[in-house]
Description:
Layout: H1 3-13, E1 39-44, E2 62-69, E3 74-81, H2 82-85, H3 114-119, E4 124-128, E5 159-161, E6 171-176, E7 179-184, E8 189-191, E9 194-201, H4 220-226, E10 233-234, E11 246-249, E12 257-266, E13 301-309, E14 315-318, E15 323-324, E16 355-357, E17 360-362, E18 364-370, E19 386-388, E20 395-400, E21 409-415, E22 429-430, E23 442-447, E24 455-463, E25 473-478, H5 491-497, H6 503-516, H7 520-541, H8 544-565
Parallel strand pairs: 3-10
Antiparallel strand pairs: 1-11, 1-18, 2-3, 2-12, 4-9, 5-8, 6-7, 12-13, 13-15, 14-18, 16-17, 19-20, 20-23, 21-22, 21-24, 24-25
Amino acid sequence: xxxxxxxxxxxxxxxxxxxxxxxxxxxxxxxxxxxxxxxxxxxxxxxxxxxxxxxxxxxxxxxxxxxxxxxxxxxxxxxxxxxxxxxxxxxxxxxxxxxxxxxxxxxxxxxxxxxxxxxxxxxxxxxxxxxxxxxxxxxxxxxxxxxxxxxxxxxxxxxxxxxxxxxxxxxxxxxxxxxxxxxxxxxxxxxxxxxxxxxxxxxxxxxxxxxxxxxxxxxxxxxxxxxxxxxxxxxxxxxxxxxxxxxxxxxxxxxxxxxxxxxxxxxxxxxxxxxxxxxxxxxxxxxxxxxxxxxxxxxxxxxxxxxxxxxxxxxxxxxxxxxxxxxxxxxxxxxxxxxxxxxxxxxxxxxxxxxxxxxxxxxxxxxxxxxxxxxxxxxxxxxxxxxxxxxxxxxxxxxxxxxxxxxxxxxxxxxxxxxxxxxxxxxxxxxxxxxxxxxxxxxxxxxxxxxxxxxxxxxxxxxxxxxxxxxxxxxxxxxxxxxxxxxxxxxxxxxxxxxxxxxxxxxxxxxxxxxxxxxxxxxxxxxxxxxxxxxxxxxxxxxxxxxxxxxxxxxxxxxxxxxxxxx
Length: 567
């Protein structure tokens, strides 16, 4: 290494190093008095997930990857899927037994990745639903703070516009280019929760809320600041595909020694004869118990690979799972393998596929090798971002690969709340990294599951092979106009009852979706209603006597529709 490059490299190692496939791992290093020992680790595996079935979309797993010392102490996190790391799946409003659904915001899931969460040795504020009741709050719920966390409904007065999640009856599956694409049909209005006094969680709160709405708790301002894993969060890898390597470049002061890499994989609804469907209790308000799907089933599965960190170029693998996590997420205990766990069809211990290559059969592979400091030059950023194949829920982001120092990854993040900057890049939602290519080639990635008629802000950040990030390139785009299937709940009914989650509003929406939107006459009627109703809804929302009149009129109508349709 020449003197200038060595000096630059030492200077680099004095700063935080971000080295990850779909996020970044913070490794603070001290001043280096000798040439640093540069060692790289690459991790690969193939997520399986569960295939789509009647009434449920394809299930992708939640995944955490981390390294521990040989004494069992946590060393560093390499990667965690965005639902856990960014969107607060393990620590969000609502009891764990509440049902689940596509992008449904309620019901914490402490059973998702408990071994990872507890082994980190960190704690955060405990997020509960919170809330004053909406106007139609049932009498048994009134004035019962202990019930704050036990229902998905009646939280309108403490709710605000949702950036990512949607109603359990407000999502759809579309065919686009022959592929099923799941997305929210409309924007959602929901409770973000608050920190319960005297309680803690081993999971971080969500980090994607850059601002606080008028009804939100002041605690929401702290969520993003308290979340320390958003930067390493990445989009969930697609099922059935070998992931691009997750890379970690060890602190140069970390000694050559034996370490252990862990991969924990959790999937909701992974049932078998030993872990059947069935929850601890039903939703306390029967009118909501039909919403969502049972989230429980087989617990998280853990794979571990002991490896030696040095410059030897060794490869270590495992084809067997090491154990499974606490089914209730109440501890970080690793239970040994047993016959209750499935081993085929992407279920249980087969959540990571068995791969075969020159290294034999394996589910997780760890490759250790010396890294080339010449690859640590800051990569060039694309000069411009472009968009193609824009629909109301998806688009392709494209750019031309620049010349100069090459990137080994182009991180892509997006959000609908505000422009993305270097400061808030790590808090924006991660998308799948853009594909690679030689200088001058056109590359990109598809972003799916978007809201219709919504402005999105995009940013692309190039990252070198040894984890050095370049400047971001930004752009913005509006998704195309919504069609009839993307309409939200009834404006007037929502204004009268205070929330689109109220039983009457939910019933009217389901009648609309089931009986009106599938025929031309119904579509015409619905289109006419959505043309005139926003103005009326505004008037209703500002007049309490008018609210009461509309509610008293709609309740018998909703009851009659319930009897007639069975919805």
